[in-house]
């Protein structure tokens, strides 16, 4: 049983009332993205998510993808849903008109991507992968490559992938073996095997365009010798014509814990013809265009799961009768009361709600920064947005997916034994979402990126830029005495965030393992503080609306209640995270490897 309703009101609250998106779009020149137009687009996207994608989610999971002689068939209804998506013009919303797009802001599409993933995670991955491919070619492709590929990718008749991982190397891309030999005509012949390639082969589009990392014959070892290539399944003519088959094949698909409707492929390149993207041996620089887009997209997958789990659990908790409420009979005409009246069920539901709504505010804030980096004419504003985004991207990716594990687990727990049964959809959500902490670099890798590369690597400058914003906001609401406790808490957390950073840096000077030992706790601490900042802002806006007597009072009262829950029960988790970070690396590293042996 699939229960999902696109949270349009929640998204519009964050965009319009919290983050000032109307002015944001106007300032960036997105004149077509008026409030009325945004609401009309959201309405149609909600219908597509609820009426087209959600009904084929459970059946897609049960049926899965099929592989036979290199051909992958997606579950019943997936191909038709994709064609409806293409016909609706969804594929090219945010891309330039010169490539057939509608030139609307990145954030607009990303908000809806959350809903599509909530409704059907597996299906949403197919068009989602194309976006990073398009962005890479837009930014780094030659005019000839753009002409060959972008019109079809933007139009949706072709889809895209990212081919990084090989059987012997996962996130350590310096170990890759896939090779590229130059051809006389300026193209390259790629040979090698890539694994875990989402949407690497399927029946939903006419052609599949792979973005591939490989080594040239004289390339330096390690990551300094990685180049980036575009390799189509079918050759492409200079005007984007689909030509004969390239030497690219699908060797198999993986049998997985979840996202069974998404084809996860082994892709073989057997002298396949491709084209260099960017500069030789500088492929990682180009690849990060794809990776940063993909990391935010993966964070949205975590957010979408938290929302879907909350919606399913909430509906069940209001309907399921078990025991009498401790606070008195709530259902006198029935044998028991709805379980939403029990404190522990409330704890789980409020945790899901607090994560879904708080994480959405963070995600839409990050989308706003992406808009600025892509469309602003103000170089100083772009640089500031890029700096803040550099800090927040690993947090968005990892915190939103880690908290999704808790939310989907609670989704099952609220249902009790029924949560373990497939017909309710909760166990599928838990299975589908488990991969999100691993995609685009595990939580540990995101944590090292945050602490070592972004914070320590910038000598604290990136952290300062964001905490300065937070502390300035806390200062600006000093006259709102009802929020002083919460604003003081966030302000003090920012000071502590800096102190923790300094302590780790000092310890790591003599013991480099200290960075790795503290990194995941540091990232989670950062996530709780950042989301706390947005809960503070949402509470202030909600109280303002109540004072003005505008809007839906119950909606704003719920915001205040949930904010209190977050500050009382979730932000306080930072205490244990601080304790863990302060304990240092010795309790991890001093045990000899042989002592791990099972005897």
Give the topology, please.
Layout (H helix, E strand, L loop, with lengths): L7 H11 L2 H7 L7 H19 L3 H7 L2 E3 L2 E3 L4 H10 L18 H14 L1 H20 L2 H13 L2 E6 L15 E4 L5 E11 L8 E8 L12 E6 L1 E3 L5 E4 L2 E6 L10 E14 L5 H37 L23 H33 L3 H37 L10 H9 L8 H14 L4 H16 L7 H27 L2 H36 L4 H18 L3 H9 L3 H4 L10
Parallel strand pairs: 3-6
Antiparallel strand pairs: 1-2, 4-5, 5-11, 6-7, 7-11, 8-9, 10-11
Helix pairs in contact: 1-10, 3-6, 6-7, 6-9, 6-10, 7-8, 7-9, 9-10, 9-11, 9-12, 10-11, 10-16, 10-17, 11-12, 11-13, 11-14, 11-16, 13-16, 14-15, 15-16, 16-17, 16-18
Describe the structure.
There is one protein chain. The chain has 599 residues and is α+β, with helices and mostly antiparallel strands. The protein has 19 helices and 11 strands. The strands form 3 sheets. Strands 3, 4, 5, 6, 7, 10 and 11 form a 7-stranded mixed sheet that branches. Helix 7 packs antiparallel against helix 8 and helix 11 runs antiparallel to helix 13 (443-456).
Number of strands: 11
Give the biggest beta sheet: 7 strands, mixed
What is the 3D form? globular
| Total helical segments | 19
Point out poorly predicted stretches. none
